[in-house]
Amino acid sequence: MNNNQKAVDVLQELNQFVNDRIEGYKHAAKLTKDPAHQSYYNDLVNQSTKFSNEINSTISSLGGSTETGTTAKGKIYRGWMDVKNTVTGSDEEAVIESNIYGEEWAQKAYNDALDHKGELPPNVVQMVEKQKNASMATCERLRQMKHAAD
């Protein structure tokens, strides 16, 4: 497998997780009752959409097919969030905790992509690292929101 194909494969898989992130924050924006949280989640939808577009543009430049799907695990998790929020009454802390879990899952996806650092073009590594750092900052802010909600 040539390096371009490896980069395409890694980015297609990563983009499924980024697409899960989009769907997860859309879902959270609908569930939250806090207008500030809703605004933040919508900002994260926009950020994630930008990330997905950036990844798909890179995939295309490497000769691959863009990725618009999500993971099966993400679909199951969003369904579980619905059930959990029905039981808890869309409790703000539960919504935030679900987002933290999702963001930690995104971190794993970015780390998995970076496990192939030696096989990826430098511009791809730089893009993935930049997105991972943004995800880490999001995770930290969500933890602060959780502590404020306690």
Automatic annotation (TrEMBL):
Sequence intervals crossing the membrane: none
InterPro entries per the UniProt record, alphabetical: CHP02284 (IPR011971), DUF2383 (IPR019052), Ferritin-like (IPR012347)
Gene3D superfamilies attached to this UniProt entry: 1.20.1260.10
Q: Give the source's domain of life in one word.
A: Bacteria
DUF2383 domain location: 7-115
Q: Which Pfam families match?
A: DUF2383
- Report the protein name in the record: PA2169 family four-helix-bundle protein
Origin organism is Pontibacter cellulosilyticus
